[in-house]
Amino acid sequence: MTNSTPRQRARLETEAQITRIGNRMLDDDGLEGVSLRAIARELGIVSSAIYRYVKNRDELLTILIRDAFTAIADEVDEALTRDESVLTVGVTMLAWSRRHPNRWALIYGTPIPDYQAPRNETVVPGTRIMVTLTNLLEKSSAVQTSSELPPSHALDPLREGLRELGLEPDDQVIVRSVTVWAALVGLINALRFGQFGPGVELVEDELMRGVVSSLGH
């Protein structure tokens, strides 16, 4: 922002600090450890002053959710510049979830009680990887395999959602995208939330490779 005033720059820096502190609290203590009052203390301001930057806890959650979606999507995009494959998407998401398990839980875990993410702020960052994956599958020969598709009307909600994101894939690609996405996120959730029991943390990457291979990629 080259034409910004000192006050505007100071506000942007404070907002960035709030995000950094909030992420650290989330990493250290989970969602229960995220507190606007505690953030205010770290910033050295009175607790009431924090509301000049963040209206309430819901807005703070939205900021952290948007930041997490952006961070993981940025890593996927960067990794795909080196190797454009479904496996790259999967292992990059998996690695990010290992480094930031609480941030992963925030965006892909159990919905937060009494919180509704504003679509206008979270849909675009939250669907970046899905858009990337759909485009990748549309170019992949793997989507040409014949399989029984659900009735066309069953895909209407997905088709409309993808259309809102600027995508017009055929039904085969839609089903393939849903299948791959559910497999990647489902595996990572099972790993992060301990559904496979002890010891599996030693072979996470191998499991991801096996799942992606079983999907034909």
From TrEMBL:
The organism's place on the tree of life at top rank: Bacteria
Gene3D superfamilies named among the record's database cross-references: Tetracycline Repressor, domain 2 (1.10.357.10)
Transmembrane segments: none
GO MF terms, alphabetically ordered: DNA-binding transcription factor activity; transcription cis-regulatory region binding
SUPFAM superfamilies per record: Homeodomain-like (SSF46689), Tetracyclin repressor-like, C-terminal domain (SSF48498)
Organism: Brevibacterium aurantiacum
Protein name listed in UniProt: Transcriptional regulator, TetR family
Pfam families the record matches: TetR_C_33 (PF13305), TetR_N (PF00440)
PANTHER family xref list: HTH-TYPE TRANSCRIPTIONAL REGULATOR RUTR, HTH-TYPE TRANSCRIPTIONAL REGULATOR RV1816
Lineage, top ranks: Bacteria, Bacillati, Actinomycetota, Actinomycetes, Micrococcales
